[in-house]
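Input record, target 12 of the design panel.
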């Protein structure tokens, strides 16, 4: 016995453990895949977002610069500015002072309009060797300085006196295309300091994760005011050794961490907006959650292995005992008993198994007896429905029609008779739809109509009733009774009417004929017999139909008889509408 149980014991444990592993493998694969997808999506979004934000910041800087250049163009054409450079020596001093005042006032007004982007404007008159500026410090006219610095592009340099510090500068003159001064030029200069760029970088940093700076090869980078000098120095060394594009992104290592470095070039200044974003700081929570998930999976695997052992010991062994006992009962050994000392939920099952094995033989005998009774009842019902005389008459009709060469009548009778008997002999289902019952009645009445030309019928049952389930052969005994005991007993009769309606929560079906009918006393007697036990002097088909209706639809259903509006006999079926159909 030990040799036969050991492989089963090991096999069950391996199955439990293997099942747990198989459950974890797809979960782990799906999680790893979803984690990689999420990391990729987040990384892509970070890249796109950084480029978009830098491009937007660059466009803001470009917009400020373009506004400044537009003002310089417009300002250089201003009549007062032109007059300032072209005053004649015979003009009085008041006119001279008034022109200087107007030029200074317009530069001051322009600086006040764009105070978020302060710009110093300077007007140089080459004719008078004089300079006017809205700068807080005095600006002297230095023609050599102008010749060295006048250009189409912005430059990053010191001022004319050497005391103004580094700033972005641009000078405009009518002879700018010739790259030289003619001796009587009016030059308008604009400059702004690194603080303007720092303000923009500070605002950008407040809404992001990076540490932005403004970089140009060979120049000291402009940092935001809270930047890390060490990070900026290492990043500058890296950028100095790279061939930079107008827009680019790279993932590099800085100070031992991974950074996503995004660059966007400023077209006017030809500097680069650079934003290093620490990827470890952004993607760190995702990596931590991934590691925690894998740790939880490992712990669940250990716990699952432990529970598989406990499950085998406390569940599988008792189940094996039940299986062995059931196999004995299956082989006919009803004396099988299970003896167990364990005090658990399975103890109750063992007791119930012992009770079951003691009672099962009696139950089998009862079931066999009930099956015999049911088969006998089915046979009686089938015999009651199949009238051999009806079949003989139909076959005789077919023979006569065949002898008369009326093939159409033979075929029609054959189809109707076949459909009729095929339906009534199928006893595997106790119920069918009312539509199928109606079709059976149509086949039956067509047969009777071919045999008796006086018979004509009508069927008027609502569509909502036709799909309901009713006992099989519920209508056939009623229609057969109307044909045999109604229209067939009078040469003046022949109409059969079948109708249905919904009335006060009940479904009603009427079968009427125009035969001789019965008087009120006989009708009442028939209704009483329907409510009592089966009697020898009453029709089995009608009584059986009534019992089946009550059994199927409940005590509020019934089969009753009354006088018909056609002058003959009426049979009425009433049953309550089921809740699921209401």
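The sequence produced for target 12 reads:
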């Amino acid at each position: 016995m030990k040799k036969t149980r050991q492989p089963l014991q090991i096999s069950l444990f391996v199955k439990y453990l293997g099942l747990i592993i198989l459950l974890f493998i797809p979960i782990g694969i799906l999680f790893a895949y979803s984690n990689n997808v999420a990391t990729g999506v987040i990384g892509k979004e970070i890249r796109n977002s950084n480029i978009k934000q830098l491009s937007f910041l660059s466009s803001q800087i470009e917009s400020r610069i373009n506004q400044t250049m537009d003002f310089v163009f417009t300002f250089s054409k201003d009549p007062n500015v032109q007059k300032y450079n072209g005053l004649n020596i015979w003009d009085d001093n008041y006119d001279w002072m008034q022109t200087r005042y107007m030029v200074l006032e317009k530069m001051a007004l322009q600086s006040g309009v764009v105070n978020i982007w302060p710009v110093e404007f300077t007007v140089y008159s080459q004719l008078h060797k004089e300079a006017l500026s809205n700068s807080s410090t005095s600006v002297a006219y230095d023609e050599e300085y102008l010749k060295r610095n006048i250009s189409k592009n912005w430059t990053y340099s010191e001022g004319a006196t050497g005391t103004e510090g580094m700033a972005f500068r641009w000078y405009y003159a009518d002879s700018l295309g010739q790259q030289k001064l003619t001796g009587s030029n009016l030059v308008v200069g604009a400059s702004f300091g690194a603080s303007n760029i720092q303000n923009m970088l500070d605002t950008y940093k407040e809404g992001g994760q990076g540490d932005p700076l403004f970089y140009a090869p060979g120049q000291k980078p402009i940092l935001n005011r809270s930047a890390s000098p060490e990070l900026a120095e290492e990043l500058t060394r890296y950028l100095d050794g790279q061939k930079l594009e107008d827009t680019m992104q790279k993932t590099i290592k800085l100070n031992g961490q991974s950074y996503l470095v995004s660059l966007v070039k400023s077209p006017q200044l030809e500097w680069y907006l650079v934003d290093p974003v620490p990827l470890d700081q952004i993607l760190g929570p995702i990596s931590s959650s991934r590691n925690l998930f894998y740790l939880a999976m490992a712990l669940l695997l250990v716990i699952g292995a432990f529970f598989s052992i406990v499950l085998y010991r406390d569940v599988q062994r008792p189940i094996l005992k039940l299986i062995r006992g059931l196999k004995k009962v299956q082989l006919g050994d009803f004396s099988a008993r299970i003896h167990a000392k364990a005090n658990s939920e399975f103890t109750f099952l063992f007791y119930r198994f012992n009770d079951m094995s003691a009672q099962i033989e009696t139950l089998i005998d009862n079931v066999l007896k009930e099956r015999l009774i049911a088969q006998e009842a089915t046979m009686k019902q089938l015999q009651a429905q199949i009238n051999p005389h009806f079949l003989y008459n139909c076959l005789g009709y077919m023979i006569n029609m065949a002898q008369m060469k009326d093939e159409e009548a033979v075929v029609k009778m054959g189809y109707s008779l076949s459909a009729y008997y095929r339906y009534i002999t199928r006893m595997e289902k106790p119920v069918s739809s009312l539509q199928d019952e109606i079709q059976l009645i149509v086949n039956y009445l067509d047969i009777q109509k071919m045999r008796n030309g006086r018979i004509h019928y009508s069927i008027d049952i609502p569509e909502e009733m036709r799909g309901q389930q009713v006992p099989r052969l519920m209508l056939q005994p009623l229609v057969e009774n109307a044909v045999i005991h109604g229209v067939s007993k009078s040469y003046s009769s022949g109409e059969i009417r079948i109708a249905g309606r919904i009335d006060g929560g009940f479904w009603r079906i009427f079968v009427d004929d125009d035969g001789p009918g019965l008087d009120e006393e006989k009708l009442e007697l028939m209704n009483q017999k329907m409510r009592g036990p089966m009697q020898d002097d009453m029709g089995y088909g009608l009584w059986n139909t009534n019992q089946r209706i009550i059994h199927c639809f409940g005590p509020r259903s019934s089969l009753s008889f009354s006088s018909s509006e056609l002058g003959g006999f009426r049979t009425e079926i009433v049953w309550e509408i089921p809740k699921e159909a209401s």
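The longest helix spans residues 2-76.
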